[in-house]
Amino acid sequence: MRILHTSDWHLGRTLHGESLHEHQVRFHDWLVDLVAEREVDAVVIPGDVYDRAVPDVASVELLGRTLSRLARITTVILTPGNHDSAARLGFGRDLLRSGVHLLTDLPGIEHPVVLEDEHGEVLVFGLPYLEPDMVRHALTPEGEETLGRSHAAVLQAAMDRVRERIAQHARHAQRPRAIVLAHAFVAGGSASDSERDLSVGGIGSVPGSVFCGIDYLALGHLHGGQDLSALVGAPAWYSGSPLAFSFSEKDHRKSVLLLDIGAPSAGGPAEMTVERISTPVPRPLTELRGTLEEVLAEAPAHGQDWLKAIITDAARPPHLQERLHQVFPHLLLTEFDPQGRGERDLAPLVRREADPLAVMDEFFDFVTGAPPTPLEHEILDDAYSAVRAGRQEAS
To answer: Where in this chain does the record put each Nuclease SbcCD subunit D C-terminal domain (predicted)?
Structure first.
């Protein structure tokens, strides 16, 4: 059986103010073509389909079109992440065509989607993002003390139910192969700046051992594709996001995962191969550090990249943004980090007894790295005098 694992689409997301919608449309078109070309039996998406709980109309329409197109050629199994609203994402799930399964509610964790091939059944379980304070009472086994306020506790309880259902199937036939979709931060995974912290309401990370006893763990949440099989004891991957959402992801290889699952094994996970397929990236993310002239000299190589420029001149160059934009039309971030200034005194600059114009000179020096020139001091003096004159007239 061939499964495609992708996650963390974050439809509606921007990159430092730059709309990503057209690039997300391109990825969806590419994905549908890939599923058809590689004859994929099922697409699994473990969460963060949308970037926020109340998505914009364009993102809702894009997801609707993509699910409809995929349902014509494969089976789609989708669970919500911490950015999604499970209730909104799952609206109308009972009305959808048989090719789309939205596993968005707590009772659904015990009811897998059942796929079949020549080797028998494959059970696909979907664990929606489980906020500990909202689900720990419902997941507490009858007669036991209420689960703790941690993701590890609630996911352990959810996986106990999954393993019990697998055992029930195995009692009536050969052991079925089992895939679990989970949106979680598995301890040992590599994070980036663009993921939302899961620790609110409880301890955020989850040990890989929680997910033992299955054939494949399809993870969502972390945006860098990575293999955590050694931590879980079974094949376990984050597919990562198909696009970058911060400069901390500039070195990521964005991809989807194509799994070929073979016959079940009595002593462990089924035979399996995992292929990483790179997704279409609009343009590279590049970080350049140096003086303004040094950064501008990189334009031939990086002029069309999404750029973060860190400028190290001792004094802030005049018209900095305008000069950068002239040669880097996709400049997204500019930082001024003067070289050689060292740690600056961050104590309050305003002293009650200080002359206001002297305070302005000090602030100018603090921001630019150099005291004002005589002309700049004169401009500050004129501005201060005009303000004082205006106040006197008003009084």
So the answer is: 282-366
Domain-ending residue, one of 227, 262, 278: 278
Q: Which of 228, 260, 278 is the last residue of a domain?
A: 278
**Domain that residue 316 falls in:** 285-394
d(CA 165, CA 263): 20
Angle between helices 151-172 and 132-139 (to 10 degrees): 40
Q: Quote the pTM value.
A: 0.84
pLDDT tens, N- to C-terminus, the chain (395 residues): 999 999 999 999 999 999 999 999 999 999 999 999 999 999 999 989 999 989 999 999 999 999 999 999 999 999 998 887 766 775 655 555 578 998 888 888 989 999 999 999 999 999 988 888 889 999 998 888 899 889 899 999 999 999 999 999 877 777 899 999 999 999 999 888 877 665 544 457 899 999 999 999 999 999 999 999 999 999 999 999 999 999 999 999 999 999 999 998 877 889 999 999 999 999 999 999 999 999 999 999 999 999 999 999 988 899 999 999 999 999 999 999 988 655 555 455 555 557 888 888 888 877 776 788 888 888 988 888 888 877 666 65
**Are both 176 and 301 inside the same structural domain?**
no
Q: CB–CB of 68/29 below 8 Å?
A: no
Radius of gyration, CA atoms only, the chain:
27
Question: Residue 24, Cα to own-chain centre: how many angstroms?
Answer: 14
CA 274 from chain centre, in angstroms, equals 22
- Cα–Cα distances (Å) from 176 to 155, 168, 237, 271, in that order, read 21, 10, 20, 13
Q: What is the CATH number of the domain that holds 246?
A: 3.60.21.10
Q: Within this chain, do residues 180 and 297 fall inside the same structural domain, yes or no?
A: no
Structural domain count of the chain: 2
If asked whether residues 49 and 30 sit together in one domain, one would say yes
